[in-house]
């Protein structure tokens, strides 16, 4: 999230030195569209300079006034100086509001630009995979944000604009956040595998633990290692991490150094990871702070993705009654039409509306339509996914499912995986403590793996993108 207001969305970061400027960023997009239509290679051609009007009465040659310029090319799109400056002002306002000492502006600019490159690469991949966030879905998200902040939508809008961000731009930033979250769910979360042995080992370790459960509040600095890095590159990155650690030991502010040096998604929030149950934190973090007192900083810890420094901000005991009530289980089936470059969300929705009409008119059974049309692995079973627990499915799917009566069929519902028709077959709240314990263990192991998997994916995405810096051009 790029603003002070909280959000449950999770958010995350030389070749030529020839000056290329532009009159307005819309020209860049127009030229890119022309290039795409004519299969021109993805390096946009722009006018050599864009200048402000010159007074004819002036006896001297007027100096050209730069209106905007390209600072980075990312694959087939550009980031402009205007975009960079707007984001820079926004981040500076947020850091100041949090009481974080502002880093050197050039260091912060470099850090922010790296984040913008990674964000742009994620958005490009989301669009390539046919992921879209329409205005209706965006409006619902804005309303939820307002409710989370205990405000009406108008009050929320006023607050955003008081902080210096036009609401229209804020909306588009939220749209981008949702797109990035969805591509991460598709490319990272859905591919994390947890074996039965890992679940068994986790439960055994929990039963042997004498310390009980705790929640930990952590902050984190990551110095990322590029994919397929050479020995020299690894040495350079270690030296950078050692320099950061030396500054921390000399008493410099962790949040300021995170905003200056960290490659982690939470870098521009001062490295704040927030409160997490210890069994849902990466083992790497737990090992790093094993002997660290509250307020202390770990030594440098190496992972495949880079060098980590972790600060322990706080500890607290967790509730002992977390597993008293048995959860409601739902027996559900669905028909999934995946959204991609070939099938748009509108086309998928239209198809599902037709299928629902056939079901409502008793012209076909749910089972046979699922077998014929569903793009899910459950199609062979008539769309039956069996019994699911809370948290097993995408939030959009679960919310729609929970509103259905037994045997009721939903309207088309969109999730990160496509468009669904959902039917609830049964519900139960049996005492399933053993099953629930394994489910909780599986989820904890999954969350432990998720952070490292996300970092690895972001590193690969960044390293494989075509990036051409023009920031230093005059």
Q: How would you sum up this structure, described in words?
A:
The structure is a single chain. It is built from 14 helices and 12 strands. By secondary structure, it is an alpha+beta fold. The longest helix has 32 residues, at 433-464. Mean pLDDT is 80; it is low at 1-63 and 320-324. The strands form 3 sheets. Strands 1, 2, 3 and 12 form a 4-stranded antiparallel β-sheet that branches. It has a 4-stranded antiparallel β-sheet with strand order 5-4-7-6. It folds into 4 domains: 9-52 and 64-118, Triger factor/SurA peptide-binding fold (Orthogonal Bundle), CATH 1.10.4030; 129-190, Triger factor/SurA peptide-binding fold (Orthogonal Bundle); 212-322 and 438-464, Chitinase A, domain 3 (Roll); 329-428, Roll (Chitinase A, domain 3). GO terms for molecular function: peptide binding; peptidyl-prolyl cis-trans isomerase activity; unfolded protein binding. It catalyses: [protein]-peptidylproline (omega=180) = [protein]-peptidylproline (omega=0). Residues 1-30 form the signal peptide. This is Chaperone SurA.
């Amino acid at each position: 999230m790029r603003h002070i207001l909280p959000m449950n969305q999770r958010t995350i970061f030389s070749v030529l030195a020839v000056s290329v400027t532009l009159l307005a960023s819309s020209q860049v997009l127009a030229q890119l569209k022309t290039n795409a239509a004519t299969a021109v290679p993805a390096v946009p051609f722009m006018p050599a300079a864009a200048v402000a009007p010159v007074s004819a009465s002036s006896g001297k040659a007027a100096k050209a006034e730069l209106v905007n310029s390209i600072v980075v090319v990312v694959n087939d799109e550009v980031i402009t100086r205007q975009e960079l400056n707007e984001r820079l002002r926004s981040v500076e306002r947020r850091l100041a509001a949090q009481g974080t000492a502002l880093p050197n502006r050039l260091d912060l600019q470099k850090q922010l630009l790296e984040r913008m490159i990674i964000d742009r690469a994620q958005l490009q991949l989301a669009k390539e995979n046919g992921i879209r966030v329409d205005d209706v879905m965006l409006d619902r998200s804005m309303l939820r944000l307002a409710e989370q902040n205990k405000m009406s939508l108008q009050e929320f809008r006023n607050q955003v604009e008081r902080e210096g961000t036009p609401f229209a731009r804020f909306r588009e930033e939220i749209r981008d956040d949702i797109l990035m979250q969805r591509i991460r769910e598709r490319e990272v979360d859905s591919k994390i595998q947890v074996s039965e042995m890992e679940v068994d080992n986790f439960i055994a370790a929990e039963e042997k633990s004498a310390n009980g459960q705790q929640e930990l509040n952590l902050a984190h600095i990551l110095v990322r290692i590029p994919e397929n890095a050479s020995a020299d590159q690894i040495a350079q990155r270690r030296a950078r991490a050692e320099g950061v650690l030396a500054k921390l030991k000399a008493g410099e502010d962790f949040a300021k150094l995170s905003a200056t040096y960290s490659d982690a998604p939470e870098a521009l929030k001062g490295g704040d990871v927030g409160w997490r149950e210890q069994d849902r934190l990466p083992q790497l973090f737990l090992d790093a702070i094993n002997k660290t007192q509250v307020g202390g900083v770990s030594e440098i810890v190496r992972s495949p993705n880079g060098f980590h420094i972790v600060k322990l901000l706080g500890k607290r005991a967790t509730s002992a009654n977390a597993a008293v009530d048995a959860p409601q289980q739902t027996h559900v089936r669905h028909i999934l039409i995946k959204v991609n470059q070939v099938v748009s969300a509108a086309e998928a929705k239209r198809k599902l509306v037709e299928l629902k009409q056939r079901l409502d008119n008793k012209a076909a059974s749910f089972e046979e339509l699922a077998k014929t049309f569903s793009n899910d692995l459950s199609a062979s079973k008539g769309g039956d996914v069996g019994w699911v627990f809370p948290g097993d499915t995408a939030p959009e799917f679960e919310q729609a499912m929970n509103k259905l009566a037994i045997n009721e069929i939903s309207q088309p519902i969109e999730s990160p995986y496509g468009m669904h028709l959902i039917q609830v077959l049964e519900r139960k709240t049996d005492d399933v403590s053993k099953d629930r314990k394994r489910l909780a263990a599986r989820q904890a192991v999954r969350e432990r793996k998720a952070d490292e998997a996300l970092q690895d994916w972001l590193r690969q995405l960044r390293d494989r993108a075509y990036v051409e810096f023009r920031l230093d051009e005059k």
